Structure prediction request, 325 residues.
Amino acid sequence: MRPITAPRRAGAVLAALALCLAAPALSACGADSDTTPPHAPAGLTAQAGSATSVHVMWESAAPADGVTGYQVFQDGRLVRELPAEKTMTDVTGLTPRTAYAFTVRARDAAGNRSAEAPAARAATPAARPEDHAPPTAPPATTGRAEGPRTVRLAWTPATDDTGVTAYDVYQGGIRIHTAGAAETATTLTDLQPGTAYSFTVRARDGSDNSSADGPPVAVTTPGDPAQGPGTAPGAFTAAASPGTVDLGWTAPDAGRGTDEYQLYVNDRPVTVIRFGAGAVPKDRASYRLTTTEPAGTVWTLKLRARLPDGNWGAFSEERRITLPG
Prediction:
């Protein structure tokens, strides 16, 4: 866990804000106290996803920059404004067989804007009218951790009657990356140390038809010694029986017994599991969930622990089950 210390620049902003609150009659408060712009976003890429859309991505800003949002430009025209936690977007409504240039600026709480990132260029493919058939799912996916925050993912190419134009990488049901049609591997960055992930890949064609998910691949990033032990519950299991689902996991090393866990089903929080005094698991934990959902219902489940500092830790590996009759 990182030490809870404010960067020098952020500390100056907080000090100025405190002064404004203490003396509201002062006029020299607010944005004028911070005139240092953030750094330009790094790692900007643009990838055509269809004949009328381009997927734009970049790396998240360093915490010391105090970034509160991003502006995305298409050929010099502002087309998107996004909050700080969003580092990708689809620019739609484009023209087939056309080249575009995209760039991004970061913005902080004082309104300072960074310089533009070096432009990323992409050309949309030709349109394929009356194409409603999706590509096949990529037949196989493999992955390996290459560091606490990096995973290398590879897949077998999909097929399509008009041709695959892009591959979309999903984690926990959310698209986190888009690769080109000619790519069969990519490197995912900005991940969390000591965290279990489950990735799937979908193929997409020029008419924006997406395939089903390819087979999932589970990858756990190693812990970062500078951040202490991983916070994700380990060895997570889910076994379905008529009317019940039995969960099991290994408690994370959070410095003391973890007595509270948040359970997600299909990417939505459904309950908080609490263990009473004297029942806090030190190693292996278990919980029985009752359900009245109909047979054949598909669930994906994951959970995370409440840490001693009050924050939620990283998610466990995701498990997929089908409820029996």
Observations:
- Helices lie at 8-22.
- Residues 170 and 176 are 6 Å apart (CA to CA).
- The longest helix spans residues 8-22.
